Amino acid sequence: MTKALILVTNHTTFSSPEVQPTGLWLSELTHFYDVFAKAGIEMVIASPKGGKIEIDARSLAWPVFDKATRKRFDAPQFMALLDNTPALGSLNWDEYDVIYLAGGHGAMWDFAEDPTLHRLIAQSYEQGKVVAAVCHGVAGLTNVRLSSGRYLLNGKRGTGFAYFDETIAGVKHLVPYNLQARLKERGMRYSKALLPLMSHVVRDGLLITGQNPNSATGTAKAALAALEVRVSQAA
Question: In what helix (H) or strand (E) does residue 110 lie, and over which residues does it extend?
Answer without folding.
Answer: helix 110-113
